[in-house]
Specification:
The protein is α+β, with helices and mostly antiparallel strands. It contains 18 helices and 21 strands. Belongs to the peptidase S41A family.
Length: 530
């Protein structure tokens, strides 16, 4: 099955990542006494753990047994109720909060040392004078180099309380001795808006990678900046976005819908319904809108697309979305761990649930997804399976369907040239990024004075650079690869990675979008409407 290997990390990510965290505003009717009262089922589990603790012949880590037990219970509920061990809670929480306290650098663990790829713009490291290519060797006297040093250990040494200083010793190529920097730790954003820029003189573009606490603020700033640049139309890119907070998705939809329009409603096991309506605060209620989705757009992404589609606002462009319509709520388990438990379903304004069936078990649920990929529906909209019993109608008479994702208004097939398995492998393994970093190490000054705009619009990757990259990969892998069949695509990825390391600020996406057939389709649709 050609798609299984390629999409498995994305699907697993969709199943357990940020997209399941959208039930924060829901409330339980049950009291604490009722929820945590003693009963025979709970007593049985407690007794078993106690027996193993005190009487089992070997010493056993009962914490790991509890983890396995919790996971086993959740696997029998639905695909999106998950357990978060206490050791993972901090990183998960930071990712969904949208920031952390640190020194503000993007780095590689490169040749047993910490190599700065780029200091984050306006962050504490940039203000202190740290540059791309610097090696951070010591932090407050602690060693940050060596083969056995793990990335989480490095991060923990660079993190700390806000406003505290960390003294760094840095090696910089060309300097005769180590440089000393004192960096004051501050809040570092984890960006959820990957890129925001103008595609044409009137068409703005915003790409959102998840719906975290900070996402609406990032989106609002990006939208305001684009409006100042003359945007009267907007392309909202939610491709590969696994979801996130329900209320953040609602806030973003509210920017586009008129007051009192229904955004969605949720229903729990007791039949309680909560409805969410748009307000009059939206700044883009009259503007023309395009929403880009694909097979990995899930959860809160589908809330946005479904709410807009059902209210006849904008045009949904792309491929059928993932199909997750369950709402989770995070619940503390008392030892630093937590469970995200499905507590309700959400429905789009026309009343459709877009959750795919999961009653035959999790394995069947995920196999059904792979079968959908392999059925050909990524290339042909006519192969999307729909059920007449799940047909709904929007206020303007458009037919929409429930039962498994949002079907776009305008279908765009997958671009196999940019979805090549070799390219995906090279990108995920970091080969392209490392190659670019080593190339910049030889002569960073070659790009000094070249603006981001000039680079994106005019800079060309040479054939010789592609051949150098091919040799670089072949020296580091057992199999020999050639890029003859997708020479231009490799150039595009090299340029995108080079742009990212030189400029950041969405440059990676801006370069890749130059060859993106879905972006091209949106631009053509924009022209037709003018």
């Amino acid at each position: 099955m050609p798609y299984k290997k390629k999409y498995l990390p994305l699907i697993l990510g969709v199943a357990v990542a940020a997209g399941i965290f959208i039930g924060g505003k829901l409330h339980f009717a049950d009291s604490g006494d009722r929820l945590f009262s003693s009963n025979s089922k709970k007593d049985k589990l407690n007794r078993l753990i106690d027996y193993i603790d005190y009487d089992y012949v070997d010493d056993i880590n009962t914490d790991s047994i509890v983890d396995v037990t919790v996971n086993g219970i959740l696997e029998n509920l639905d695909p999106h109720s998950v357990y978060i061990p206490k050791e993972d809670m901090q990183s998960v929480s930071e990712n969904m909060k949208g920031d952390f306290v640190g020194i503000g650098v993007s780095f590689y663990a490169y040749r047993d040392s910490i190599a700065v790829v780029r200091a984050i713009a306006n962050g504490p490291s940039e203000k202190a004078g740290i540059k791309g290519g610097d090696r951070i060797l010591l932090a407050d006297g602690d060693t940050l180099y060596g083969a056995k040093l793990k990335s989480d250990e490095i991060i923990n040494k660079l993190k700390g309380s806000i406003g505290t200083n960390v003294n760094l010793k840095v090696f910089r190529k060309g300097e005769p001795k180590l440089l000393d920097f004192t960096v004051k730790r501050s809040v570092i954003p984890i960006k959820s808006v990957d890129a925001a820029y103008m595609l044409t003189n009137t068409l703005g573009y915003i790409k959102i990678n998840r719906f975290a606490e900070s996402t609406y603020r990032e989106f609002k700033k990006a939208l305001n900046d684009l409006l100042k640049e003359g945007a009267t139309e907007l392309a909202l890119d939610l491709r590969d976005n696994p979801g996130g907070f329900l209320n953040i998705a609602e806030d973003i939809v509210d920017e586009f819908l008129e007051e009192d329009k229904l955004i969605l409603f949720t229903k729990n096991k007791r039949g309680n319904i909560e409805k969410s309506f748009a307000t009059d605060k939206g700044d883009f209620q009259k503007g023309k809108l395009f929403v880009l989705i694909n097979e990995n757009s899930a959860s809160a992404s589908e809330i946005v697309a479904g709410a807009l589609q059902d209210n006849d606002k904008g045009t949904i462009v792309g491929r059928r979305s993932y199909g997750k319509g369950l709402v989770q709520r995070e619940m503390d388990l008392g030892d630093g761990s937590a469970v995200r438990l499905t507590v309700s379903r959400y429905y789009t304004p026309t009343g459709r649930s877009i959750q795919r069936p999961y009653n035959k078990g999790n394995d069947t649920y995920y196999d059904d997804y792979f079968e959908r990929l392999e059925s050909g529906e990524l290339l042909d909209a006519n192969k999307i399976k729909v059920a007449d019993s799940l047909k709904f109608k929007t206020p303007k008479g458009k037919i929409v369907y429930g039962g498994g994702g949002i079907i776009p208004d305008v279908f765009v097939p997958i671009d196999n040239s940019m979805q090549n398995e070799t390219l995906t492998f090279l990108e995920r393994r970091g080969f392209i990024g490392y190659f670019i970093f080593e190339m910049l190490e030889k002569n960073r000054n070659a790009y000094k004075g070249l603006s981001k705009k000039e680079f994106i619009e005019n800079y060309k990757i040479s054939d010789d650079m592609v051949f150098q990259f091919q040799e670089y990969v072949n020296e580091r892998t057992d199999s020999k690869v050639t890029f003859v069949a997708y020479h231009d695509e490799v150039k595009q990825y090299i340029k995108a990675n080079l742009a990212d390391q030189l400029y950041g600020e969405g440059a990676f996406n801006q370069v890749l979008n130059q060859r993106d057939i879905m972006i091209e389709e949106v631009i053509e649709l924009s022209k037709l409407g003018n």
